[in-house]
Amino acid sequence: MEKMSKCKVCVTGGAGYIGSCLVKKLLEKGYTVHATLRNLGTSLFLISLRLALDLFRASLISNRVEFADDRSKVDFLMSFPGSDTKLVLFEADIYDPNTSVRRVIYTASVVSTSPLMEDGFGFKDFIDETCWTPLNLSYAYSNPNLTEYVISKTLTEEQILSYGTNSDIGELEMVTLPLGVVGGDTFQSYTPLSVALFISSLTNGEFTYQALRFLEELLGKLPIVHIDDVCEAHIFCMEQPSIRGRFLCANSYVSSSEIADYYQKNYPEHHVLERSKERNQVGHHKANLEGFVYKYDTKMILDDCIKCATKNDDRSKVDLLKSFNGADSRLMLFEADIYDPDTFDPAIQGCDFVFHVATPLLHTQGYQFNNTTEATITAAKSIAMSCVQSGTVRRLIYTGTVVSASPLMEDGSGFKDSIDETCWTPLNLSFAYSDSFFRNYAESKTLIEKEILSYGTNANGTDGLEVISLAAGLVGGETLLPYTPSSAVVLISQPTNNEDMYQKLRYLEELLGKVPIVHIDDICEAQSFCMEQPSINGRFLCASCYVSSAEIASYYQQHFPEFHVKQEYLDGPKREIKWGVTKLVEKVFEYKYDKKMILDDCIKCARRHGDLQ
């Protein structure tokens, strides 16, 4: 593969928590970036990074992407998609032999990797890329939005991956990166929802805690990952000579109670709500992104979430992205909207790699789609096809979530012995701590990841495009955003006594057996790793730790005594599911953050944003 710095990379959803961090890292590495935003008028931060950054307006709802420069070409497409509940099939031309796109990297979510058994009777013994969220189940702590999200992410990832096996689409590589809950700091002017999930036990936010518990019940525990690790994982997938498939991205797999315990022990100034419910755990999380090394552990992720939550930055999304070094000459922003999928096309053109990270949590009314699942799956297909037609994109790297890789048995009778990239969340099951939102979320993330991966199987006429899905664990750590990311909030939900976020943490734990967690830095490094490989394809779970919520709570209790961690957080489930995710590590990716680093960074992040004292 030619010198990677000469490649053009398209990043969809560039103004988000993960997207903005990834754009910054790509610029720092010398890449020229095409970034899409739904509304360029609200992205002054990215505009400030103009040097090697081109911005494009794009929407996943539309069937057309307006290019800022039709003459530009991109080699890689990194897509950060939305979520919803229904799979919408549509025809599009992805057979252009002159396409520049070499790889499509779809950013999926671990909600598509639930280790829940297909029958809903327990978790598998592990969570990894083999896990797919059972979409036929009901999940504890779920609601219509969460359920829709799970279905959308799962179906979309499955569809994306299916294109990676299609001999008709040439050499386009399809990669999905199902991300764990992302923690860490942010450049954004608000606290990312994922960070809010980490610290829900500290902030007492009912909504975020419920979401956290939903994830825990869906994933067994919470796969968490630092935002930096998420970005590095994306770049990793892009820089591989060749890479295809699904890769869960999370370096820690912890329970909501573990997170609560960590905050209780390490942040005693915050009161963590007590919990007494016993919870089961998935034994372990398998890291499969061979060669990728996570830099953030659970502590770092959680601490960065705290830092992120304490920061108060009112800069707009565009201002944030444009403030990065090299943005003035190597960052181009584009308006793009999941509900107007063709609007991503201009950003993709001329790029070598595409990171698909864009993902809406809530449904936008007024479009032809009934829900976010329809919109995001349609957008995923449109983005993959744009990669093929670009003539330059070599690899598509999708950042997903481990909720799509549940190790639960298909019949729901329990968990598999381990969790790895072969796990797909059984969508026919009901998950503890789930509600309609969680159910939708798990189904959406699972379906979307499968959809994305389908493009890497040549099943959709995208031969030649490498597709990678990085199913990220729960992401922790610091953030560039002006608020604590929801994933970090989830990781610190125990020390913050955020019931809503704690429920989300428990949901993940119940879905995945335990919680795969990963530092945001490791996620970004994994993304970079996937991009820089000569060739890489498939699904990669991305998480450096696979821990129970009780382990997280215990950590906070021991290391942040200023926070009160409720006993019920410490009494989480004790499962022995093995972490069988090794694909990324086998490719020589090295996680730099362990559980301690991830959780500590979540705390730091929340404190910096004022969410913790």
UniProtKB/TrEMBL annotation:
A GO biological process held by the record: steroid biosynthetic process
Tell me which Pfam families the record gives.
Answer: 3Beta_HSD, Epimerase
**Ranges of residues in domain 3-beta hydroxysteroid dehydrogenase/isomerase:** 311-454
Q: Which UniProt keywords apply?
A: NADP, Oxidoreductase
Tell me yes or no: is Transcription regulation among this UniProt entry's keywords: no
What are the protein's GO molecular function terms? oxidoreductase activity, acting on the CH-OH group of donors, NAD or NADP as acceptor
Q: Name it.
A: NAD-dependent epimerase/dehydratase domain-containing protein
Domain NAD-dependent epimerase/dehydratase span(s) in chain numbering: 9-38
Task: Fetch the InterPro entries from UniProt.
Answer: 3Beta_OHSteriod_DH/Estase, Epimerase_deHydtase, NAD(P)-bd_dom_sf, NAD(P)_dehydrat-like
Record carries keyword Coiled coil: no
